């Protein structure tokens, strides 16, 4: 039937209707239209649209509570479109839908990359694997996987990790106990993570975590670069590029910090090269593994970028690993102790498990030293659970290579930026159930077998998903377990009550004002318990 015939039929039908029937029909049409509108709105929740600036004011107003805001806006709809000011080309798809994540990161991996925009924002990482795409990324990934799997490198890392814990962390905590002073756990773990990653990558423990809390130029510079990279995400790229050109504001600091890192790394690489040419024995750190084995070159724009000995490649690689490693597990540790402070029963269970695993070792002297970390299932569950609610990397970036449709029907054009919020994903009822906001390590334990439950990475993307999954997962988990075991076995950490704990907008999940805590020796706690018990039963001090 043609369109004119359809119209004539409708006209005849309407003419033959009574007023009441016609009103009912109108009402029905209205209901259908409103329902369709709400359906679309539920799927593409729209932010307030301002003239010229469009959705930017909403972002600016919520920048200090970015993660909570993503939870709020993604709660009802799972995917939203964000439009920056007119003529800036700033258009972003924001999602927390695991199906979209699976599609972009795994099943259609080749159709989505990080894109040139990401590499521009993180230009201090050069062509390192974190920002690379395509063949360059794939070659670098292969090289890195082999090195991370090397037993020599793994045992070097755990040696350095133990060194930082015994020579850095323990003295700092003991000093705080002696002085009865409050410490900032975030600062402590930030320093610890820097020492561990710097030592694993470059071979030398910089001793940033020490009783005197010394300054470190390298750390400060990297911190500035990371901070600026976050700010670059939040404004149209044209704006920060103009700032960079004119050397204004944070872009001036960025340039200076980059020079500092470049100088340090170039010196370090030259010293190692000299040792190698003189036939001296060098340590089994990551950089050394790259320098002492021959690698092949990668074609493309940066010809011979990866060739053995290429200084830019070595510098970018070293910096990429330090950048990828340090902030992530320091964030994981800080939020873990915060979650623990609110759950004494979880702490008691972790302690019980630690003692059980230690007791299973017959060698009295080595009980603590040779703790079998693989047996600490409950501790691992607690770490995973803490990172579900507080993922060290709260937001991940992707870009579509060509026009595509995500599983939820969202159309993405070529070059369109797609961000998925891991922070929001961990807090969605429809993903984790009604108790999604509760800290429950038990959700990770299989009741029947007592083993850890596996969750698909697209539901729990804390270590990323698919071929680009985090290379340092094992290292990160090992360091976190070692540090937590060392702290919980010998100290009792009491987080200062009443402090405001809120994230600061940044690339990794950091606390705005740190995490203030008091520490006591575990033995002292026992004595104190006896004293309290004596006081409560006799009403007199001991
Ligand atoms: C709790 C600890 C850690 C967490 C939660 C974590 C999380 C992540 C996430 C989410 C990504 C994807 C980021 C992106 O593509 O934008 C990533 C990538 C990466 N991570 Fe980790 N990470 C941790 C520790 C480490 C450590 C200790 C290292 C090594 C020193 C490391 C090395 C890397 C590398 C090289 C990549 C890039 C992989 C690629 O693009 O192929 N990570 N990590």
From TrEMBL:
Pfam families attached to this UniProt entry: p450
Keyword Heme: yes
Keywords linked to the UniProt accession: Heme, Iron, Membrane, Metal-binding, Monooxygenase, Oxidoreductase, Transmembrane, Transmembrane helix
One Gene Ontology molecular-function label: monooxygenase activity
Record flagged with keyword Nucleus: no
Transmembrane segment boundaries: 6-34
GO biological process terms on file: lipid metabolic process
Cofactor: heme
Family, per entry: Belongs to the cytochrome P450 family.
Protein's name according to its UniProt entry: Cytochrome P450
